[in-house]
Structures are given as structure tokens and as C-alpha cells.
């Protein structure tokens, strides 16, 4: 492997020969099992890093350069010395027909090993730099996906959907109906592979329940009468592009396209999951430091007086209530826990932070794109996944076109979150 890598960097025989050697190296990698691929990447990371002696020599020459011409030469020499050999090698794959997809898939596997391996981490960072440059949004093409799109592309849509599972071809057909839209970004060197895609429902009013939104039995609405576009699913399709963000550009481009096609659209919003809420809530409840007020605790305890609602041996805790199967179907339970969960979820979304950014990953994504926290939705997702992740709660993030830039600057600069009075009211409510 090392010999093949060195031959790729030697550059003998011109461009055609260089591409042939890179293609052969790629075939070698693809023919390896997981252990072999890890060894391959270890050799690439360890043996084709920067040459420290060459860097030191270039730094010394830079310091000794006095006139503009020699300083310019020294700067270029230093810049070249700081580029690892592996970067030059990886760049050669850009010229191959499937080369960029090859590198995207390679980085997807590399990410698994980079967490606990400093060599792999350095190689992963180099690959991320390359891919970020190659996947600049200016190179990407926005395409609408329809039921008439190639079957191979539709199959990938089903496979890559990460938010609300597509249950089969009929479900997919409904999501591509006349009152629905699906858009994806593509790279010209990966024309058959969506990078990220968004699913949109054209409705009247702001949707509050994803099961209703995706109901296959619901009648198709005339999209020309819709006043709201609901972004209900955004899925990154390529694991190897993790950390390379173009979702914000996708939303802006889609808004432009929808506005042109449907002039009556007035509102653009999401119906989004809150994937970190239950995990955060369970952690806070385990601390036992006044997460639930005295009044709320008393009402939860009263639930245990009725053994048909919750057995007394479960312990009078909110966590025990939420762990009970079908708790959301019991009227008495819902009456008690709904205001508590709405308050705590608002607190989580507004106050739980990772540095300056919102702790919830979906919240961070939309807030950094300029959205506002608009409305919490009780039992907006009653699927097993929705109940497990967020006790069934969902949220609408609203994209108000005139405020997007200001919201983006405020959040990314100061960590300030634009929150509607409706969501704030839930946070302030106590019992």
C-alpha cells in the first residue's frame, strides 16, 4: 500500500498515468475488509504527514528573506511544506469519475475511527477541508424530486430519510403528491446521489401533528390555496459530509422556489422533532434539584392514589409516569403532565446550552439559519420514536423572511434565541 501511495505522489508519466495509479489505489482500498481499510488509512495518516524537517527549513528561509521577491518565494515554499503529502494524494481522486463519492464514503468510515485515534483525527480533518472546498454551495444544484424521478433515486430517498421513516412506496408517493414538495442538493460529480433533502407540505395554517400531516387517507389539498409551507423533514444523506453544512442554503433556495411557484404562500415554518428533550429531562430529574415544583409534585403524587393509573410501587416521579406504556392515552395522566412537560420543554429549548449554542441539535440548526421558536405542539409525534425522544412534543420553527438575517446574526454572534411569546409563556408557567 505504501509503495502504491508513493507512486501516486511521484507524478511520473503525466496526468493520465497519475489518474490510473490513483484509480488502482482506490480499487485496492475497496477490496480490503474493515481491518485492512483501517491499516490503509493508518499508513496514509502516519507516513504521509508533513515533513517536519522541510517545514523547519522553510520557516528558517522565510525569516531570512528580506526583499519582497525572496519573501514571496519563501511564503510559497512554506505553504507547500505545510501541506501533507496525503492531501496531494487525496486530491488526485477528484479527477476520477467516482472519485469524490469514493472520498465521501472513505471519510464516513474514517469518522468512526477518528474519535479515539489522533492520527486518524488529523487525516479526517484534512479530508474535511478538501470536501468543504469541493462542496461549496456555489457548486451545488437544487433539484425537485418527483414521483417521475428515477426509481434508483426514489429508493435512496427511502433509505436516507432520517426523521420520519418512509413506510413504503405508497407513503413515498403521498409525500410527492401535488400538495407536497421534495427538494435535494446534488453535486455535479455525484449526480445520482442526494446530499441533503427537505420534504415540504403545502397547507393552510401551521401544522401541529406529524401523523396528521402524513396521513395517507387525508385528501389532497389544492396547493394554490395553501398559505403555509411546512418543512417537516430535513435529512443529510451522506455520512461522509458530516460537519459540512449547507442546510441553511437549502432552506433559502427552497423558499425562493416555493415563493415563485405559489405566490399566496405567506408563512414558512417547520414541524420539527426535539430529539434531546427526554434525555435532558431524565438527567435533570435524576439530580432531584427542584426541576418539578411542589405543586406539580403533589399532582403527580395524586396519580398514584389510583392503582389503575400508575402502581404505587413505581414511585411518585415524572420519569415513572413517562415510562408507563400508553401514558399519553390516559386522560387523567395527560391532565397532570401536559402543563409540566410543556413548561420543562420550553425551558430545555431556551435555556439548555452547549456553550452559546442551543443544546438541542435540531434547535441549533434552525436557529443558526435564522428561524424563531414559534410554537410547542403537544403530542405532535405519537410514534414510539417521538414518545421516546421528546414525550411526543414537537415544535414549529418559523422562518419570517424579513427577520432571518437578524436572527441568524443574533444567535451565531451572541447566542440570543428569538422566541415567540407563546413559547415563553409555557416556560414561565408554574404550578
UniProtKB/TrEMBL annotation:
<dbReference type="InterPro" id="IPR035372">
    <property type="entry name" value="MCD_N"/>
</dbReference>
<dbReference type="InterPro" id="IPR007956">
    <property type="entry name" value="Malonyl_CoA_deC_C"/>
</dbReference>
<dbReference type="Pfam" id="PF05292">
    <property type="entry name" value="MCD"/>
</dbReference>
<dbReference type="GO" id="GO:0050080">
    <property type="term" value="F:malonyl-CoA decarboxylase activity"/>
</dbReference>
<feature type="domain" description="Malonyl-CoA decarboxylase N-terminal">
    <location>
        <begin position="48"/>
        <end position="135"/>
    </location>
</feature>
<dbReference type="InterPro" id="IPR038917">
    <property type="entry name" value="Malonyl_CoA_deC"/>
</dbReference>
<feature type="domain" description="Malonyl-CoA decarboxylase C-terminal">
    <location>
        <begin position="138"/>
        <end position="400"/>
    </location>
</feature>
<protein>
    <submittedName>
        <fullName>Malonyl-CoA decarboxylase</fullName>
    </submittedName>
</protein>
<dbReference type="InterPro" id="IPR042303">
    <property type="entry name" value="Malonyl_CoA_deC_C_sf"/>
</dbReference>
<dbReference type="Pfam" id="PF17408">
    <property type="entry name" value="MCD_N"/>
</dbReference>
<dbReference type="GO" id="GO:0006633">
    <property type="term" value="P:fatty acid biosynthetic process"/>
</dbReference>
<dbReference type="InterPro" id="IPR038351">
    <property type="entry name" value="MCD_N_sf"/>
</dbReference>
Amino acid at each position: 500500500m505504501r509503495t502504491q501511495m508513493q507512486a501516486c505522489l511521484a507524478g511520473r508519466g503525466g496526468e493520465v498515468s497519475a489518474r490510473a495509479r490513483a484509480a488502482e489505489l482506490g480499487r485496492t482500498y475497496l477490496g480490503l475488509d474493515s481491518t485492512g481499510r483501517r491499516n490503509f488509512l493508518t499508513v496514509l495518516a502516519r507516513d504521509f504527514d508533513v515533513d517536519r524537517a522541510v517545514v523547519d527549513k522553510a520557516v528558517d528561509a522565510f525569516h531570512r528573506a528580506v526583499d519582497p521577491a525572496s519573501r514571496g518565494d519563501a511564503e510559497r515554499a512554506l505553504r507547500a511544506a505545510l501541506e501533507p503529502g496525503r492531501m496531494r494524494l487525496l486530491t488526485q481522486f477528484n479527477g476520477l469519475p467516482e472519485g469524490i463519492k469514493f472520498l465521501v464514503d472513505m471519510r464516513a468510515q474514517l469518522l468512526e475511527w477518528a474519535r479515539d485515534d489522533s492520527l486518524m483525527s488529523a487525516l479526517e480533518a484534512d479530508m474535511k477541508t478538501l470536501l468543504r472546498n469541493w462542496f461549496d454551495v456555489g457548486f451545488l444544484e437544487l433539484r425537485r424530486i418527483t414521483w417521475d424521478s428515477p426509481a434508483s433515486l426514489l429508493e435512496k430517498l427511502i433509505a436516507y430519510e432520517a426523521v420520519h421513516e418512509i413506510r413504503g412506496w405508497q407513503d413515498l408517493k403521498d409525500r410527492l403528491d401535488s400538495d407536497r414538495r421534495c427538494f435535494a442538493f446534488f453535486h455535479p460529480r455525484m449526480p445520482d446521489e442526494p446530499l441533503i433533502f427537505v420534504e415540504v407540505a403545502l397547507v393552510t395554517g401551521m401544522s401541529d401533528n406529524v401523523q396528521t400531516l402524513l396521513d395517507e387517507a387525508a385528501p389532497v389539498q389544492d396547493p394554490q390555496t395553501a398559505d403555509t409551507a411546512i418543512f417537516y423533514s430535513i435529512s443529510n444523506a451522506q455520512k461522509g459530509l458530516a460537519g459540512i453544512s449547507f442546510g441553511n442554503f437549502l432552506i433559502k433556495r427552497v423558499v425562493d422556489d416555493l415563493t415563485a411557484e405559489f405566490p399566496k404562500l405567506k408563512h414558512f415554518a417547520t414541524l420539527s422533532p426535539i430529539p434531546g428533550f427526554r434525555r435532558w429531562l431524565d438527567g435533570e430529574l435524576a439530580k432531584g434539584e427542584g426541576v418539578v415544583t411542589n405543586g406539580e409534585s403533589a399532582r403527580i403524587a395524586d396519580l398514584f392514589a389510583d392503582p389503575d393509573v400508575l402502581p404505587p410501587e413505581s414511585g411518585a416521579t415524572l420519569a415513572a409516569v413517562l415510562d408507563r406504556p400508553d401514558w399519553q392515552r390516559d386522560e387523567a395522566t395527560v391532565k397532570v403532565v401536559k402543563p409540566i412537560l410543556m413548561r420543562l420543554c420550553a425551558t430545555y429549548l431556551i435555556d439548555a446550552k452547549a456553550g452559546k449554542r442551543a443544546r438541542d441539535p435540531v434547535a441549533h440548526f434552525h436557529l443558526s439559519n435564522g428561524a424563531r421558536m414559534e410554537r410547542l405542539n403537544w403530542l405532535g409525534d405519537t410514534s414510539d420514536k417521538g414518545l421516546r425522544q421528546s414525550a411526543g412534543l414537537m415544535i414549529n420553527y418559523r422562518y419570517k423572511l424579513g427577520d432571518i438575517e437578524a436572527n441568524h446574526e443574533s444567535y451565531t454572534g451572541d447566542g440570543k434565541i428569538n422566541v415567540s411569546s407563546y413559547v415563553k409563556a409555557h416556560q414561565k408557567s408554574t404550578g
